[in-house]
Amino acid sequence: MVLKRNFFFLFLLFLLTINFCGHAQNLDSLSTILKNEKDDSLKLAALLENIELKKETNNKKGLSFAYHNVAEIYYDKKEYSASIEYFMLSLITCREINDNIGIASCYQNLADANTNAEKYAEGIRYYADAIDVYTELGYKNDMAYCYLRISEIYELKKSSSEAIKYTRDAQRIYTYLRNNEKINTCIARIKYLRSKK
């Protein structure tokens, strides 16, 4: 078992070295390679090594992905403080390279992590930031997702009227998109929220 792990780790380092030398095409998605690996500590070690390589080669796009991948591991482990730290590093890097899609994604991920950590004010703020960028990009489904998540936060805060307001915002987008399934979900959610008043 130890030999298998050591071999796997050495294999990953080999792949990273190839990437570092410029002989491999797009290994920024190291998470794809690590997808089936069960040992989070092994994944983290490989991804942290990848971060160092991206820094050394000044590969900002790859660095933002690397930070994001580490953040996701911490998020899945429900270690939200560490997840927030790495999503923030990814956000900073995305801003440096004017990657608006990456910025919006980071805001949404920061909102999700803060909400799960019960930091609701931060969650709402980051969802609002994500909505602003998604609006610029024209990403309506992502906007609607954020509105629904804000609605869920207000429901947790026992503010049904605010929860209904944000659900209606999502419903308007789904109506524009003609997504009947999501429209019906919003209608059912509004009825449920009204019953809690």
How do you describe this structure in short?
This protein has 197 residues and is an all-alpha fold. The protein has ten helices and no strands.
Q: How does the SSE layout of this entry go?
A:
Blueprint (H helix, E strand, L loop, with lengths): L1 H20 L8 H5 L5 H17 L3 H17 L3 H17 L3 H17 L3 H18 L2 H17 L3 H18 L2 H16 L2
Helix pairs in contact: 1-3, 3-4, 4-5, 5-6, 6-7, 7-8, 8-9, 9-10
Describe this structure in words.
This protein is an all-alpha fold and 197 residues long. The chain has ten helices and no strands. 38% of the residues are buried. Residues 16-28 have low confidence and may be disordered.
**Unreliable sequence segments:** 16-28
- Name the helix and strand elements from N-terminus to C-terminus, one letter apiece: HHHHHHHHHH
**Radius of gyration, taken over Cα atoms and rounded to an integer in Å:** 20 Å
Percent of sequence in beta strands: under 5%
Helix content: over 70%
Oligomeric form = single chain
Q: State the end-to-end CA separation.
A: 57 Å
Q: What is the 3D form?
A: elongated
The total of helices stands at: 10
Number of E-type strands: 0
Content-based structural category: mainly alpha
Describe the largest sheet: none
- What is the average of the pLDDT values? 87
